[in-house]
Amino acid sequence: MNPMSRVLVVEDEFTMRNTLKDCLEGEGYRVLTAADGETALKRVLEDKPDLILLDVMLPKLDGYTVCNEIRRLANPTPVIMLTAKGQVSDRVDGLDAGADDYLVKPFSLEELLARIRALLRRIHQQSNAPRALSLDDVHVDFIRQQAWRLDQPLHLPPKEIAMLRMLAESLGHPVSRDRFLDVVWGYATFPTTRTVDTHVATLRAKIEPDPDNPRWIKTVHGVGYKLDLSSTPSSPRREES
Ligand code: CA
């Protein structure tokens, strides 16, 4: 996660605003502030922060209105609402207005920082998520969950597509067997790490030109597997075809 992420703190109470600012700056974030709803909107549009901490009770425009307006403008900046009361209706109003998360005052700064980290991580992963992967004549569409070799459908079950997707997300970096098990198999079943190896072997047999000498899905000894695209797509072999 980028520690230089910019957070807009929208809070009309001076002490609270400064406490949040100091805390976030102490964690390496860059902080912008606004003390009312109108200024908040202006800051969002002009300064494009990475995340917004938005108090609900604000002068000029309240937090719900600000959040609604941000979303109406199709601005996807993540918003954490800071509500004074913990009533369900406040929470629902906040989420209805397009907030991604909410915290009830008083909250601990530790909790706030954890929520910010989680939200930024989620946004980062979404924006990095590959939609498709092409390996020579094999094409995998992660959105439609389908694969083709040339123009022929290639049968890849959901687990194999999910594994490829994880490899593509971590392009060039290893994905551990445990991580595959957590994400693809979940906690409900009890497969062993051998299960991962078996599925990788099946996947290689389907997509690798020479499964015994994998070109793309490389074994990282003692760790797991990684996707290596360094031999594609501009390799001489490809240009000849
Ligand atoms: Ca307030």
Please tell me about this protein's structure.
- With 241 residues, the protein is α/β, with parallel strands linked by helices.
- It is 43% helix and 20% strand.
- The strands form three sheets. Strands 2-1-3-4-5 form a five-stranded parallel beta sheet, sandwiched between helices.
- Strand 8 (146-149) and strand 9 (152-153) form a beta hairpin.
- The chain is elongated and about 65 Å long.
- Calcium ion is lined by residues 12-13, 55, 57-58.
- Rounded to the nearest angstrom, the distance between the terminal CA atoms is 40 Å
Helix % is: 40-55%
Structural class: alpha/beta
**What is the β-strand count?**
12
| Largest sheet descriptor | 5 strands, parallel
Determine the number of helices (DSSP H or I, runs of at least 4 residues).
9
Order of helices and strands: EHEHEHEHEHEEEEHEHHEEH
Strands of the largest sheet, in order across it? 2-1-3-4-5
Set out the fold topology.
Elements: E1 6-10, H1 14-26, E2 30-34, H2 37-47, E3 51-55, H3 63-72, E4 79-83, H4 88-96, E5 101-104, H5 109-128, E6 132-135, E7 138-141, E8 146-149, E9 152-153, H6 158-169, E10 175-176, H7 177-185, H8 193-207, E11 217-220, E12 224-227, H9 236-240
Parallel strand pairs: 1-2, 1-3, 3-4, 4-5
Antiparallel strand pairs: 6-7, 7-8, 8-9, 10-12, 11-12
Helix pairs in contact: 2-3, 6-7
Bound molecules: calcium ion.
The site of calcium ion has 5 residues, from loops.
